[in-house]
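Backbone-to-sequence.
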């Protein structure tokens, strides 16, 4: 076979068996496998620590609303805590999602570049604020406007179960949910903004060339393209809200009950209950808190896996469209 490089007959050079590429591939595989190992180890630890407490529980762990793991016999359940976690997270999403989408659309399609850059930086800074700062602000400053608003809602809309009750108002599901809404706002805004900016220019120009206004272009070209990404960002924000600890520990009223009233003092969540009860818990009490943490771990894991699945579906859709 000719050795002349111009002849084109030489075989391609063999890839080296050991090099930078193989080292990088092995390292990334090991890092990914380590994440799975850590998740399995955390699950095994939680299960091992929770089983003795669950066996000693004199009530149904899934349906009991009271939390008395240190009494004899111990009685505790996750129902009221899970309800509080769900209610505060739903309130946070109901408030934060419309605001976040509005900000993301403004920054990506309406604002001048300088304003969009400045506002985007300010929004991203909110994600760097520690949760304890949000909690202290909600407990000392934000509680008074929320209390006044709760009194107004109770006065004029008290016939609705959400806003009923005789008070007192303040440290409630509403306060905790509004603080959570401010905390998840930068996550949803940043991700949604990036999704909207990735809309193909050809799609936007095609809508405008047909006589669509800017809002009609957004409604017909930008929002349909970015819907999977927006859903994924909302679910990631939900994962943050579900696991929040300190902010809710400072803004909820620590009453374990299942109620639809969101303005009256009360409410508790899984993470906040762990933070408030771990220091004084006995052996069974610690096991009970770990068991509740296992439930929260499972919920957040499912939420984040669903978000990743939606992102993967969006990537497949984008690749097939291309």
């Amino acid at each position: 076979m000719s050795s002349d490089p111009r002849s084109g007959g030489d075989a391609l050079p063999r890839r080296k068996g050991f090099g930078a590429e193989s080292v990088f591939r092995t390292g990334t595989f090991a890092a990914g496998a380590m994440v799975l190992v850590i998740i399995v180890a955390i699950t095994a630890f939680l299960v091992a620590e929770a089983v003795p407490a669950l066996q000693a529980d004199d009530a149904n762990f899934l349906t009991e609303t009271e939390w008395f793991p240190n009494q004899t016999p111990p009685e505790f359940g996750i129902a009221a805590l899970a309800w509080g976690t769900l209610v505060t997270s739903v309130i946070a999403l109901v408030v934060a999602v419309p605001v976040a989408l509005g900000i993301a659309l403004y920054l990506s399609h309406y604002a001048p570049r300088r304003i969009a850059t400045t506002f985007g930086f300010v929004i991203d800074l909110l994600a760097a604020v520690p949760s304890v700062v949000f909690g202290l602000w909600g407990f000392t400053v934000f509680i008074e406007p929320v209390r006044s608003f709760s009194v107004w809602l109770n006065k004029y809309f008290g016939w609705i179960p959400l806003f009923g009750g005789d008070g007192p108002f303040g440290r409630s599901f509403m306060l905790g949910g509004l603080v959570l809404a401010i905390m998840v706002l930068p996550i949803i805004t940043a991700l949604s903004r990036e999704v909207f900016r990735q809309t193909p220019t050809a799609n936007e120009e095609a809508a405008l060339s047909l006589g669509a206004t800017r809002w009609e272009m957004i409604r017909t070209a930008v929002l349909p393209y970015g819907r999977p990404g927006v859903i994924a960002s909302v679910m990631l924000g939900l994962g943050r809200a579900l696991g929040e600890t300190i902010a809710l520990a400072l803004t909820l009223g620590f009453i374990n009950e299942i109620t639809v009233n969101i303005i009256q003092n009360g409410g508790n969540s899984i993470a906040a209950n762990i933070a408030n009860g771990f220091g004084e818990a006995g052996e069974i009490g610690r096991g009970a808190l770990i068991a509740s943490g296992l439930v929260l771990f499972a919920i957040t894991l499912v939420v984040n896996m669903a978000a990743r699945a939606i992102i993967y579906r969006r990537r497949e859709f984008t690749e097939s469209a291309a």
